[in-house]
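Entry:
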Amino acid sequence: MGASASTSSDASGSALPTDIDVPRWADEAACASCADPCSEHASIPSYLRIDHSKTLPGTTKPYGKHVVICTGESDWAPKIQRGGGLLEALVNRIGAVEEQLPFKIMVTASDESSISADGLDLIVFPDNVRIQGVTMEKVEELIHRFFVQQQPLQDICDFLTCERVSMQYVLVCVHRKRDKRCGVAGPLLIEEFKKSLAKHNVSDVRVVGSSHIGGHKFAGTLITYPSGDWYGRLNGCDVDNIVTQHLIGKQVVKSKWRGRFDLNKEQQLTCAGIAASNW
């Protein structure tokens, strides 16, 4: 969802590395606007303390892989690594091997149900693969082969059922036990996404609730895949623009953009045309 930056520089005056995929920004002047106040879309309650002062780009910490654990529920413990059972085992074992890897791994839970009746399914981005039925007995072998040895997917499929993920995903933070702001804003956004996707006859997008992703002071917050773009300070009125501009139009809504998973803070600021000294 970007253009090559072979000789790119932008409004900040900073040059970008040649291998950076620069976001294609949506023409937000052309976006539909709502009346103020809006009677059509649900609004985040004013009593929630949302940070409207900090610059959004640069607030996404870069990572190499995002593992989404399909739990079929959203009543997670405040920290999923202390929630017990298979979920806790997966989160902690993946975290334990991170120091052996040249990249960071982000691990979250989602309220999407696992396909397999045994164990839990893992969806891994940006690999866009779903690994089904990971049981406690298979945790160690999976983590060693897939993350440490980085074996090809066909080898992983020898002992676990795997499938490619073709849908676009929207992961909305709804982790109420971690922070009330996301617990209130997240479900509101999901309902607005359902209405907007139906209105535009979009069938290739799956919107799910997620555990804590970081930055709850910017609620509502979400991540989109396969692009890996993060958005924050979303209200009900913003959802239709995300659907039409990003999910359909493959362009990024700059005014709500927090960053992208494969860009560091300085690169996110440069892409957004913001000088790091002003952050």
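The chain has six helices and twelve strands.
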